[in-house]
Amino acid sequence: MTVPTPNARIAAAFEKARAENRAALMPFLTAGYPTIEASRDWLMAIVAGGADLIEIGIPFSGPLADGTTVQRTSQVALENGAG
């Protein structure tokens, strides 16, 4: 059995959405925000809600390229012990 590469899975998700004449849903979640437990619950809710793809942000102490919202969620996640 051949396991699809990550790029192939991403391409397939966009192709499926395109075939259904809709935009692909790809929410972003910072791991560990607002708490480690809540981020796990939110991740499962996103999956149950039918997201096509999920971007999980790994918190780190210098997210200078990210906007203020991601910077803040990363800081809170780090304070919660994530990262």
Structural summary, described in words:
- The protein is mostly helical and 83 residues long.
- It has a domain of 57 residues.
- It is 47% helix and 7% strand.
- It has 3 helices and 2 strands; from the N terminus they run H-E-H-E-H.
- A two-stranded parallel ribbon has the order 1-2.
- Helix 2 links the parallel strand 1 and strand 2.
- The longest helix has 14 residues.
- It is elongated and about 40 Å long.
- The termini are far apart.
- The model has no long low-confidence stretch (mean pLDDT 91).
Mean pLDDT across residues: 91
Shape: elongated
H/I helix tally: 3
Strand residues, percent: 5-15%
Number of strands: 2
Main structural class:
mainly alpha
List the helices and strands and how they pair.
Layout: H1 6-19, E1 28-30, H2 36-48, E2 55-57, H3 68-79
Parallel strand pairs: 1-2
List the main descriptive attributes of the protein structure presented here.
single chain, 83 residues, mainly alpha, two-stranded parallel sheet, 47% helix
Quick recap:
The protein is mainly alpha-helical. It is 47% helix and 7% strand.
